[in-house]
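Example (one chain per record):
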Amino acid sequence: RRRLPIFSLSQAVGLLSAQKETVAVCGVGGKTTTTAMLAWILEFAGHKPSFAVGTGNLGNFGVPAKWTTGSKFVVEADEYVADPTSDLTPRFMYLEPKHIICTSLKYDHPDIYADESATMSAFASLITSIKPGGTWICDPQDKITTQILSLSGVSRKDASLASTSDSGRKHVIGFAKEPESTYSPGLNSLQTGLKIKVSRLR
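Predicted structure:
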């Protein structure tokens, strides 16, 4: 009777994303833990980030999501569709990311994506949605990432490209390839040998 708008969770998170500088964490494997770690790093650094993580609870925060007065929004970017019965839009396509972190890209969800090419297309669409001046943090040795990099229009001149083999450039957040002997079990959701190199958000 009140004609109130009704949104799916994906749409609602997307509306929140539009209000802050969004860091979206995507990938097949590791995105929940990586999102939680990044939210805590920013909290510990005094940035008071908003966050939304696809889990029941985050031990350090006591909640899986929180909206704050801070300017950053850290969100888990899920590639699954918003609703298999009515909305086949990938959930992460409702986001408005300034920065994207990709843990690893692999073929998953065969009920939604027919093959690896379909998976690549979905993630490529997300990458091209990065706002001007944003950053894409990825592993260029990843097979699907390599395919996305080869697509016309993905390597945007208004976006910085940080990668696991590009530790010399200054980025908002960067990952650097390290010797396997320096691997930290605490980061086991990231690709083996990756360690956080820069955790300061401008």
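Caption: Residues 164-202 have pLDDT under 50 and may be disordered.
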